[in-house]
Please model this.
Amino acid sequence: MKTPEGSLEVRIPKGNPTNIQAITWIKKDLGPSVLALFKNYTTKKDLWGQTYRVVTAEVSFAQLAEIIQKGPSLIKCQTSVVVSSVTTGVGKPVSFTSPPTSGVPEVDEMVCMFVTSPVVNVTHFCTQYEYFSEFGMYRGFANPDPRLIALGVQFSTLEGFAEAEMKSRSA
Model:
């Protein structure tokens, strides 16, 4: 979101700026992942009945804001650290903010859920925003999914996202 001062904000309702999150560039990574599975499902029966994670990178929301602002950075994945030397950032201040709601009551109502979590041994009503901010998604898995990489999927980078999607929006 562009601010009146010309800077940008990454706004995630009830988000924690430091917890690591699974981030996906749907526009670039979902299609190639599905296509790779479709091309191989008839010849590789071991692909059947599995869940595949389409995760571009794992970063905190504060790190995501920094990547959008500056471009090159270290991206921590459980299996590796990716380093980019190409400047791709928007060149404007980018901050992370955590509003109490999305600003759209229907969306806030839709993402409310009753959570039973073996991780924290508690059952309570909260929002998906709060749950995923605290516990993340796909913990304990290698991301990007090595099974998709083995099928030839080349995942994008968050620096590429900053270059392709955010520069034009910040102009």
